[in-house]
Amino acid sequence: MADIIVLGGSAGEHIAIKLAEILGVELGFIEVKKFPDGETYIRVHSDISGKRVIYVNSLQRGPNELIIETLYTLDTLKDLGASEIHAVIPYMAYARQDERFNPGEVVSILSLAKLFKALDLDGIYTIDMHLHRITKPEKVFGSKFYNLTGVRELAKYVKKHHSIENTVVIGPDEEAEQWAKTMAEELGGLEYSILEKKRLTAEEVVIEAKGVDVRDKNVVIVDDIISTGGTIVESIKALRKLGAKDIIVTTVHPILVGRALPKLLRLGLKDLVGTDTVLSPISKVSIAPAIAIVLKKRLGL
Ligand code: R5P
């Protein structure tokens, strides 16, 4: 398809490369660097005039900088004559600030969505975005909106690398039920349960495992994000108290701030795996195949 080109931003190039390969389309190049005063310089080196452009950039590992880079680039693509613009944002920043939890707070995701809306894109494709309070993302972001999941790709990895005999899938809180269900289905119909989580501070949570039976069973934990690691560390402790055997931890977005990774590595897990929506030492699973499935349909490939 000569009229389609994939471009990656500074936090999306690794996915853009794989996506172009899977789709069998051209891979272009965007230069991003800093001016001496800290402002961002961006130059699209590929000819995109008249082409359908797939632009990939993840908004984590410096979200504020990446938002500017992404919005400026998307705006310029239109200016350079792209016939369609499909924005793949594997990690959507600020999705958890989706309510005015305290008086006067910025509802960051709504402000960000307004900026995307102004660009009038042909599609936004994101992965396991925290969409708990935004029920109509198409309306808020002003374009076709696809919230895809990375859990199936994680399940393929688990199946390929581990035995799933005598295994139960656990989601660490109520919101994770959707991911636990998908993981359990993809692993051939395993049982799944969720734990109860109460968040005390940004780093501290209390986890209870009422009525969860994991005695002498292996466990696959699945959550959308590991940020400070608090949720997963407390979940593991609770599951071990209940007699769980081998534990595999899977996450879509391995943000892993501060000492989250060493904290988790000390726990003697059977495996700890994330996707590459956010690049990290545990990003062993590519998200590109999940994105490619939808783009193929959307672009008629
Ligand atoms: C919360 O709603 C998410 O699903 C994750 O459980 C949470 O973001 C993980 O954060 P942390 O690793 O800091 O506990």
What does this protein structure show overall?
The chain is of the alpha/beta class. Helices cover 32% and strands 26% of the residues. It is built from 9 helices and 16 strands. It has helices at 13-23, 63-79, 108-118, 137-141, 151-161, 177-186, 230-241, 260-265, 288-299, and strands spanning 4-8, 26-27, 30-34, 40-44, 52-56, 84-89, 123-127, 145-148, 167-171, 191-194, 196-199, 205-208, 218-226, 247-254, 271-275, 283-285. The strands form 4 sheets. The protein has a 6-stranded parallel sheet with strand order 2-1-5-6-7-8, sandwiched between helices. Strands 10-9-13-14-15-16 form a 6-stranded parallel sheet, with helices on both faces. α4 (137-141) links the parallel β7 and β8. α1 crosses α9 and α5 crosses α6. Ribose-5-phosphate binds next to β13 and α7.
Assembly state of the chains shown: single chain
Given the helix and strand composition, which structural class is it?
Answer: alpha/beta
Radius of gyration: 20 Å
Sheet-strand content, in percent, reads: 25-35%
Heteromolecules bound: ribose-5-phosphate
Q: Give the CA-CA distance, first to last residue.
A: 8 Å
Number of strands: 16
Strands ordered across the widest β-sheet: 2-1-5-6-7-8
Largest sheet: 6 strands, parallel
Number of helices: 9
Order of helices and strands: EHEEEEHEHEHEHEHEEEEHEHEEH
- What do the pLDDT scores average to? 97
What does the overall shape look like? globular
Share of helix, binned? 25-40%
Low-confidence stretches: none
